[in-house]
Design a protein that fits this description.
Length: 409
């Protein structure tokens, strides 16, 4: 029976996906839930598993092609064996045979054709001669245990997996050489570029600044961080304070939590906050949903989960979809001050920066305090300067007096 391998259901905001490298070639055995292809979207890389075990009999899309949601990428024959699948598959879709894949003598070919898919895969992966292994199954048939026992006894060197054919890397330029190289933009990088240009061209972006004394939050964190982690299993960071402060400020100034659509303003009665994090593929913004209903522990645990998933390239489309407001912490990279760009169609983004010990005046005296610059970029079409300034002041007041976050004042 032939089973279709389809593109997963994509979110409305993700129109299509680009195929990356196939993990299997036509004629090769696949196990159920084994990853056989990766797809790159504007937001994440999706892994497509085999829906059933069998033989990859046909590939309908090549690496680099673009596919739509639920489009068929390949077909798996659940009744074929690897040898049979390789012989009966479409000649155009079969990989070229190397010397190692060339037909073996008749006896070995006969033995190979009688192997089960699991045994065949084990033999091929380790470069074994099936005819040299004594079978203990029915009519002398090889079973998986026979192969494992043979490997344990003979300790053959494992056959290295076939590496995808790639152009050899360019040699490093000699010292003083004026070299150039080109690399294609990834889908994510192209989407980032598109959205940043869109924001600059369609919104009237303005940025207002303030500074916040981090000492109260730092003292509170120092006092309770060990007990917090022991109780909740999550580390207490600063982002949960800023997320909660943002919720209070967004409730007071709803235009900052809204966006323009045509000739209308769309207001949100909830706060879904995007948290910008770095990943090997670029900046990504997973979403904390209904932050007003989340505890500090919920926020910290979710941010830690997002960070781990971003590093592993495991963020899903759902993790990245939506969002009514964004917080970007350039301070973790050492940024002292910046003007963050909006994440369309949102109307504002809060930029956090590096905390530095600086002299400030408190009650008429010069003292040293851990200070952080804050930046709020906003769409002046929907947010007035007064609202933006007061919004940032509300953030500042909540961070400098964390009791406000608990009392809701």
């Amino acid at each position: 029976m032939l089973v279709d391998v389809k593109v997963p259901v994509l979110a409305e905001s993700v129109p299509d996906a680009t195929l990356l490298d196939w993990k299997k070639s036509p004629g090769e055995a696949v196990a159920r839930d084994e990853i056989i292809i990766e797809l790159e979207t504007d937001k994440v890389v999706l892994e497509v598993p085999a829906p059933q075990a069998g033989v990859l009999s046909e590939v309908l899309k090549n690496s680099g092609d673009v596919a739509l949601s639920q489009e068929v990428l390949a077909r798996i024959d659940t009744e074929a064996t690897p040898a049979a699948g390789a012989e009966t598959g479409d000649k155009q879709s079969q990989p070229a045979k190397t010397a190692a894949q060339a037909p073996a003598p008749a006896a070995a070919e006969s033995a190979s054709s009688a192997l089960s898919p699991a045994v065949q895969r084990l033999v091929e992966e380790h470069g074994l001669d099936a005819s040299a292994i004594k079978g203990t199954g029915k009519d002398g048939r090889l079973i998986k245990g026979d192969v494992l026992a043979y490997m344990d006894t003979n300790k053959p060197a494992a056959k290295p997996p076939a590496a995808p054919v790639k152009a050899p890397p360019s040699p490093p330029p000699a010292k003083g050489e004026r070299a150039e190289r080109r690399e294609p933009l990834s889908r994510l990088r192209m989407r980032i570029a598109e959205r940043l240009v869109q924001a600059q061209q369609t919104a009237a972006i303005l940025t207002t600044f303030n500074e916040v004394n981090m000492q109260p939050v730092m003292e509170l964190r120092k006092r309770y961080k060990d007990q917090f982690e022991k109780t909740h299993g999550a580390r207490l960071g600063f982002m949960s304070f800023f997320a909660k402060a943002a919720v209070q400020a967004l409730e007071r100034f709803p235009a900052v939590n809204a966006y323009i659509e045509g000739n209308e303003i769309v207001f949100h009665d909830y706060q879904d906050i995007g948290v910008a994090v770095g990943s090997p593929r670029g900046l990504v913004v997973p979403i904390l949903r209904d932050v007003a209903q989340m505890s500090f522990a919920d926020i910290e645990a979710k941010i830690a989960e997002f960070g781990a998933k971003a590093s592993d390239g495991a963020l899903t489309v759902d993790d990245m979809s939506g969002g009514t407001f964004t917080i970007s912490n350039g301070g973790v990279f050492g940024s002292m001050l910046s003007t963050p760009i909006l994440n369309p169609p949102q109307s504002a983004i809060l930029g956090m920066h590096k905390t530095e010990q600086r002299p400030v005046v408190v009650d008429g005296e010069i003292v040293i305090r851990p200070m952080m610059y804050l930046a709020l970029s906003y769409d002046h079409r929907i947010v007035d300067g007064r609202e933006a300034v007061l919004f940032l002041v509300a953030i500042k007041e909540a961070i400098e007096d964390p009791a406000r976050l608990l009392l809701g004042v």
